[in-house]
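FIELD: query
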Amino acid sequence: MFRKDDVAIKEWSVDNVHFCAERQQQILKDIFPALKEGGILVYSTCTYNEEEDEKNVKWIVDELGADILSVPHKEEWGITESDYGYHFYPHKTKGEGFFLAVLRKVTSDSVRCNFKKVKNKLTIDKNSIKTLSNVVTSSVEFVQYGSSYYAIHKEMFDKVSFLSEKLRTLYAGIPLGSCKGKDFVPDAALAFSWELNRDNFSCIELTWQEAITFLRRENLFFNDAPKGVLLLLYNGIPLGWVKNVGNRCNNLYPQEWRIRMEADYNEYSQLIK
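FIELD: result
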């Protein structure tokens, strides 16, 4: 956050602004052919200056070929609209502020790849497949990267296999989790997947305060809850996982995701109305 970082404040200069704007144009020029005609580009920066925001959006329109799209929003959100996008100023909206524009590509210079089926498929052992088979609802292939398992839709599997042979792939697909002995430990991101098979897990509906406690990665305890991995929900929406070991629940929410701010229920209620 610029205003909170003394080093960033000292490094600011008009020359650096121009440098950042030019670097963004180079990135956009390199990746734009990967977007098909009619595809949507979301351009966003964490700054307010015209060079990196409006002027770069105009450059995309004029040089790369795109139309600017309007984004519906409510007046009470405090968003400031310009001819080329939307500013989220910190004195009008919550947060540190940013700029956003949405564009549709109108040129036809997309790069196409011809994928061929490959013989060396990414596979895992049968025991792991048996453990994972009820975790997701779609027809998928299971793969392993390191100690973690992922699910890839069958219609995409050959393409992923091809790319994994050509590129250094950290992971691909829907993150499922890992197997420790006979226990399945779900990945935090699995809770947010549309493909999650909720029926395979015991679910606990949380109160507002319990949800905030969980998101702060603090300890929770549920009377009469079954032992093992539990999926926690708020208003029916999955938030993440805990493992109930009887006398306590181990919070499986990632340390780096935890919230630190105070959260007021009345304020939240006003936001969602």
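FIELD: remark
Confidence is low (pLDDT under 50) at residues 117-121.
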